[in-house]
From TrEMBL:
<protein>
    <submittedName>
        <fullName>BTB/POZ domain-containing protein</fullName>
    </submittedName>
</protein>
<dbReference type="Pfam" id="PF25553">
    <property type="entry name" value="BTB-POZ_ANK-like"/>
</dbReference>
<keyword id="KW-0833">Ubl conjugation pathway</keyword>
<feature type="domain" description="At3g05675-like ankyrin-like">
    <location>
        <begin position="200"/>
        <end position="435"/>
    </location>
</feature>
<dbReference type="InterPro" id="IPR058039">
    <property type="entry name" value="At3g05675-like_ankyrin"/>
</dbReference>
<comment type="function">
    <text>May act as a substrate-specific adapter of an E3 ubiquitin-protein ligase complex (CUL3-RBX1-BTB) which mediates the ubiquitination and subsequent proteasomal degradation of target proteins.</text>
</comment>
<dbReference type="InterPro" id="IPR038920">
    <property type="entry name" value="At3g05675-like"/>
</dbReference>
<comment type="pathway">
    <text>Protein modification; protein ubiquitination.</text>
</comment>
<dbReference type="GO" id="GO:0016567">
    <property type="term" value="P:protein ubiquitination"/>
</dbReference>
Amino acid sequence: MEASHRRRHRTWCCSFGVPPSSPDKERPRNRRIMSPGRVSVAEGGERDVRMRLTGKNGRCMVLEVNSGVLCANSEVFAGLIADYYKGVSSSSTMCRIEVPQVDNLGVFRETIELMFENHDALTKRLLNIGVFRSIDVLEVSAGIMFTKGVLSCLQYLEAVPWTEEEEEKLRSLFTRFKFDEATTRDILGRLYLHDSVDSTSQPNVARQLVWSITTCVDGNARNELKSLVKGLLCKSSVYEKNHLDLSKEDLYSVCHSCVESLVRVFEEASAERLTKNKPLIEISRQVDNINWLLEIMLDGQIAEDFVNIWADQQQLVKMHDNASPMIRYELSRVTAILFVAMATRKLQCRLEARSGLLQVWFRPMLLDFGWLQRCRKGLDIKVLQEAMGQTLLTLPLNQQYILFMEWFRDFSTHGTECPNLSKAFQIWWRRSFLRGSETYAIESRWKAGILNLQGSDYADRELEKLGI
């Protein structure tokens, strides 16, 4: 293998130098590199090189090794040894090499020891020390141009799984070192998409995943995959986004398909008069799909167009009026997500869109609220009640009057089967009637309407709290 694993920069993991021939002032601890039980002193040859390692923490280590082994395995040490003997008169003098600023003394020593191993023994050593340590050994091997060590580390690392921490460590190493392309092709294939791949000609993976999930039949698998893919696509994901990210057009394409499927299944359910259980399951599945897509839209801040889409579902609203409460409440689950998103400022849309949504879906929400309480499916009812009131308060006062009067009539009749919007109602009352007399005519009509209401006990108590 050619010496293509040279460092891109001169910032080595350690630097090397040939020290003066004078004796050291301090006597650091000696370590004889022999690979005990594998290489004898005779096999290792004469230990004629003294290598003084100094760590970044100030600790020192001295290794005594054979110059022939060093020169045969490392181009860097071969050059240093040759330079040393150029400056001394006798070749019998022990060669002294300084290696300062070593990141990890133990890893450096371990890398030198591997020079004394054959291929099989070296592979076993890497297997024993594991991936994380082997990446450190690979870095040192590349730094000292220890070709056999580099090849063995790369072969081992390519053949084993990595943790995310190990993957990031390896990715960082490849940004600082350049290795032979033929040797590292397989590892790089696990770390990066090949540059030769034209991303525009590849199918959109994210879109395929979303389509597959919305058509998944198994409920448990679908829920598991929804959680997985949403975590990958959300803005707070730890995973980097690239060309495979889901576009707004792709997302709305899937969403339109789900809404169309919901309309079709609702028609089937109405025609069959609930003689079969399948339409119920399919309606619930499509609503779950729409709400899941809506959550992804909200996270990407691209959900404002869906408000208009949902407000335009006149056919669904007509079928809602004639459908069984057992299935029609599923539609209000979608409306509930929109109300909560608007009230919590996760969704901003124009007045026309908000007004259209409330005019179409506010009445169905009042009718379905009792079923939403009994079949919550993760919905927080208190949050929903607060959100409905807050969303109403974003409309002009004259539009609020119409919707609050509709709520008032329904609440006074059905009590707990209707959302309690008393807090928002008080705010509307204060804004409308306690800031001058310009709304006197509206107030008169409102009071006249109250006199004609037949109230439930619960509603009467709530109205009494309001002072009415």
